[in-house]
Amino acid sequence: MKRVSNEKVFDDIKIKDEFLPFLEVEDMVGGKKLIIDHPFNGRVEVDFYDVLPEIRFIETKSHHESSDSNYQDLFFFNNPNLVIMNCIIKGTCQVPVGDDKYVFLKDGDMNIFHIQESYKTLNYGEDTHILFIILRRSYGSSLKLKDPLNISRTINDLFGIVYRHSNLIYYNNRQIKEILEQIVNFQPAVSNTKTTYQLIKFLELMIHVYNFDIPEENLKQHTYTDSQIRVVRKIKNMISRNISSYDSVESLSQQYGINSTTLKACFKEMYGKPIYSWYRSYKFQRAKELIKNTDYTISKVANMIGYKNSSKFSKAFKEQFGVLPSAYRKKKKK
Questions:
Q1: Dihedrals phi, psi of 237, to nearest 5 degrees
Q2: What is the pLDDT confidence band of residue 70, given thresholds at 50, 70 and 90?
Q3: What are the strands of the beta sheet with 119-120, ordered from one edge?
Q4: Has residue 103 got a pLDDT over 90?
Q5: Is the CA virtual torsion 188, 194, 197, 201 positive or negative?
Q6: Contact 54, 139 (CB under 8 A)
């Protein structure tokens, strides 16, 4: 492992300055591994593979406990003539699709778009695994005379498609999801075959991209502004800090100055559940942790998450986890 500056790591990718002190890089066959182990924000691993001079795979894995950890805009693409494919293997992430316009993608989703200026990457969720496929338009001219697989035409055609639609989103397409999982799960017996496998899978992926019609609703996906997302994140933080009480959506929207419909839709996009469902799940998970890791009485734990009656809490706990809280504690202490 070695610590390096931005200039010594990548040509058209810049790491956000605040993460450089925690950046370590090691060489791998066909690429580099980047690790950022931040004392407060958790750990992110990024593998870079140059499959061909104009095709780069970037696989990122983030491990941190909160979606509010500050691994936002981790790195930037400095080359404006790129097509970027964001492939979500696991988790949820916030992806820019225009001027102050963002969408949220989840497991199995893929977003393809062309950047025309410096592009900041997505914001990570709590535990995410993402594959970027970065394509450079210059590929066609560099291998014009030695391209038996017609890869240059494939890439140029993709640029043409993205130019027409600006932003393409494939929501949880089964065939595409299978290919992405094969790419990230491949463990070669011979290390130098990995990039060859990645190239084959890239071509297979392109076949599906060209042959699947994009549903009209995918081209008109709902977007959110940065200010709306920040407000929803504040609301989520407030709810998680005050699990003993719950405010209605109408009350929250008035307190934070956000339309209630936007609040409900954006919250579900960001955290995968409606607000109350998320709150209920979160507070019972917290109760579970308290029962397991502390000596608080069941009655005290019930009170901490908003139940004045421990019997009602025990009943609700069993509905949630299939076991009474007392039995759960006894089982965990064996």
A1: -60, -45
A2: very low
A3: 13-15, 75-77, 119-120
A4: no
A5: positive
A6: yes
DSSP assigned state of 125:
-
Q: At which residue do the structure tokens 């960001």 appear?
A: 270
- Within 13 Å, how many C-alpha atoms sit on residue 16's CB side? 14
**Residue for token digits 């890791």?**
293
Per-residue pLDDT tens digits for 107-119: 888 888 777 654 5
d(CA 98, CA 113) in angstroms, rounded, equals 10
Residue 130 parent element (H or E)? strand 127-136
What pLDDT is stored for residue 139 in this prediction?
A: 46
Q: What is the mean pLDDT of residues 130-141?
A: 72
Q: What is the DSSP string of 25-38?
A: EEEETTEEEEEEEE
Cβ neighbour number for residue 218 with a 10 Å cutoff? 16
**Which residue is associated with the tokens 């691994």?**
71
Can you give the pLDDT at residue 67? 46
Neighbours of 33 (CB within 10 A): 16
Spatial distance between the Cα atoms of 327 and 321, rounded to a whole number of angstroms: 11
- The crossing angle, in degrees rounded to 10, of helices 275-293 and 260-271 is 50
The CA–CA distances, whole Å, from 216 to 169, 177, 219, 221 equal: 10, 20, 5, 9
pLDDT tens for 18-35 read 778 888 888 887 788 888
CB 144 within 8 A of CB 196: no
Q: Round to whole Å and give the CA distance between 111 and 36.
A: 25
Structural domains for the chain: 6-219 (2.60.120.280), 226-332 (1.10.10.60)
Label residue 185 exposed, middle or buried (CB < 10 Å: 0-12, 13-18, 19+). exposed
φ/ψ (deg, to 5) at 171: -90, 110
Cα first-last separation, the chain: 42
Q: What is the pTM of this model?
A: 0.74
pLDDT of residue 196 exceeding 60:
yes
